[in-house]
Amino acid sequence: xxxxxxxxxxxxxxxxxxxxxxxxxxxxxxxxxxxxxxxxxxxxxxxxxxxxxxxxxxxxxxxxxxxxxxxxxxxxxxxxxxxxxxxxxxxxxxxxxxxxxxxxxxxxxxxxxxxxxxxxxxxxxxxxxxxxxxxxxxxxxxxxxxxxxxxxxxxxxxxxxxxxxxxxxxxxxxxxxxxxxxxxxxxxxxxxxxxxxxxxxxxxxxxxxxxxxxxxxxxxxxxxxxxxxxxxxxxxxxxxxxxxxxxxxxxxxxxxxxxxxxxxxxxxxxxxxxxxxxxxxxxxxxxxxxxxxxxxx
Length: 297
Fold this sequence. Notes:
By secondary structure, the protein is α/β, with parallel strands linked by helices. It contains eleven helices and twelve strands.
């Protein structure tokens, strides 16, 4: 497994926020024609970031960067961010997650960008927490995949960690994953594994297997991590037992056609991981709101 970076890279946050603000305001410095028309630049106030749903929060760490960049673009003082809960916290509807204080123009211009990022991340964390809870006590962990929103992979994989999940590979560069098309192109599982080992001897090799024979061939070729794809529970249990009999140290992952209802059943086969693309490609947002306090004008 790839060791995940526990926190978001500040440089990545800065780049991502800049792109998001360009989308909303137009090229830097940009403008908000409504807010800048109706709110005097000297007006100050406070706003509460509030959960409108129960869930697990993530992405709150991006908020200071959002309000900081907005203040710089508008030429106004920096707003302060009093974060009330850390990322990864279970929250209830109505909980105040952070209080932002400063120029009202900054708060309102920053609103949608910070909500987009935090709501998206919190949705992923909330969904992941359901899987982590379902697997609790089984010894199996839930993994994410590369099925992420372009440009937001770092945030979404961070959110998976906040929800109790585990990151798999971060991209095509850090782990070799031999799948069916690679096997077709190389001629066999063994040939594909050998080709990767020769070209990139320093990387971990993972191999997808659809059948017992493929799994055993991959282990014989030296694979230390197998993706057992779209297997019914009885076949999955058979493959796990057969592989463990050959090499008990090989890591095994169930993937494909997984649902929360099946999570513990699949884990009972002895796999180490369940990989769930839906953590990042199908999680609904967690509804968050930024409410300006009445004294803000």
